[in-house]
Specification:
425 residues; three-stranded parallel β-sheet; 16 helices; globular; binds manganese (II) ion
Length: 425
């Protein structure tokens, strides 16, 4: 199903408060020296990919509780991303997970995606679970495995993923490994790292000229004693060894509690090696909760460094942005809309940070003023700017309210049936 422009127009026209709120805020910001039009247009340009596995009710560890009307084919997943995009105008891409979402008819899938204004972002390989009829098992690792046959199978899978992505117009491969060990002594750290390095180099050789390889890290889980690519340092070493098309990917949930993620982001951008970003939020570990739902100030501080890097680090490439969140108890589409809203909100607030004043306060070691400058931006309610950016692009003033007013979940259930199941986790 698709949302008609007229439906959104009717919905938007019923909002009586937007204009007044926007004018008030725009006035305030202009008086503070901001160019409101520039901020709104930057918000409109900021697009975040939706992963194909987040459209069904998730629950990666225990039971799954369906939200009904879930997409059961790649076509339906792209339709869902199209719905989110037409409401928010900030989700103009999908990130496919292979082999969960291998297209059968490439032309048809590309046509469908472009009909809902969706492009194909980074493709993700999966060597963390065994596939049907696979010759080798990933039980003891993939790219790092002690067995050459297993390593070769996982390299071949990654090359297949590149080939699939290439046919769709993707420009990046994301590699995340579950490889590691659950008990001391199980792995030789050096051998596992060296094997991973060599395997990644083989994959890198198959990377098209205009592609990037994004190497994701994670400190624990599913292995609980060690992971081969445990942190940004390990990822950066591997990327440096592979070459200039290889980069580190930061996933917010892939850190030990209270890690200073904004500092990691900042230094990677200084070195021109931050390639991708996965949004989610967490209280304890890799909880994959809605972005901005637990630590919105941390998300703002991270965005402050991202904005600083985007403006000051031409050596760093454009980033691949993706939401990597999924869980059990919300309508997945509403959940993704909430994440997009939180991401845009943090981005908008980071754009309000007076970088020149901050630099001067840092130079003077005026610690209090430094904090005041950051919090002045953070405390500004910028939601009317987001509404304006969506209105300019033809989206909904309030995507969640529009989603509910148009009764989209029930329409999806009507089309697809109640007990459909999305492929994926
Ligand atoms: Mn991730």
């Amino acid at each position: 199903m698709k949302i008609q422009k007229e439906q959104l127009l009717d919905f938007n026209n019923s909002s009586t408060t937007h204009k007044e709120n926007f004018d008030f805020l725009a006035n305030q910001l202009t008086n503070r020296g901001h160019n409101v039009e520039t901020i709104v247009s930057k918000l409109g340009e900021f697009q975040v990919a939706i992963p194909s596995w987040a459209l069904g009710a998730g629950g990666t560890r225990f039971g799954r509780f369906s939200f009904y009307g879930e997409p059961s084919s790649l076509e339906q997943k792209i339709e869902d991303v199209g719905l989110i995009h037409s409401l928010t105008q900030t989700a103009g891409a999908v990130s496919l997970h292979i082999p969960w979402d291998v297209p059968e008819d490439y032309m048809a899938i590309k046509e469908l995606a472009s009909s809902v204004d969706i492009s194909f972002d980074a493709v993700n390989s999966n060597t963390f679970q065994d596939q049907k009829n696979a010759k080798e098992s990933y039980k003891y690792g993939s790219l790092s495995n002690t067995s050459q046959a297993v390593r070769e199978q996982s390299i071949a899978h990654n090359l297949d993923v590149i080939n699939i992505g290439n046919q769709l117009g993707s420009k990046a491969l994301t590699v995340w490994l579950a490889d590691g060990s659950s008990f001391p002594g199980q792995n030789n750290f050096q051998t596992a790292f060296q094997n991973t390095q060599d395997s990644l180099k083989d994959i890198y050789k198959g990377l098209p000229e205009d592609w990037k390889m994004l190497i994701e890290y994670k400190p624990y889980e599913p292995n609980f004693y060690s992971t081969v690519i445990q942190d940004w340092g390990a990822s950066l070493m591997l990327a440096n060894e592979c070459g200039e098309k290889a980069f580190t990917l930061v996933d917010l949930g892939h850190h030990l509690p209270n890690s200073n993620i904004e500092q990691i982001v900042s230094i990677l951008m200084l070195k021109g090696k931050l390639g991708g970003f996965h949004f989610n939020d967490s209280k304890y570990g890799d909880d994959d909760l809605t972005a901005g739902s637990i630590k919105p100030y941390a998300l703002f501080l991270i965005f402050n460094e991202l904005v600083y890097g985007m403006e000051n680090n031409p050596q760093n490439p454009d980033l691949a942005w993706m939401i990597d969140a999924s869980h059990n108890i919300k309508d997945p589409l509403e959940d993704l809309i909430q994440s997009l809203e939180a991401i845009q909100e943090s981005y908008a607030k980071a754009l309000l940070v007076d970088q020149d004043a901050l630099k001067a306060a840092q130079q003077d070691n005026d610690v209090v003023k430094c904090q005041e400058i950051l919090q002045e931006a953070y405390r500004t309610d910028i939601r009317p700017l987001l509404e304006k950016a969506r209105l300019n692009a033809g989206g909904a003033i309030s995507p969640i309210k529009a989603y509910r007013a148009l009764d989209l979940r029930n329409h999806l259930i009507g089309e697809r049936g109640k007990y459909t199941i999305a492929t994926g986790l």
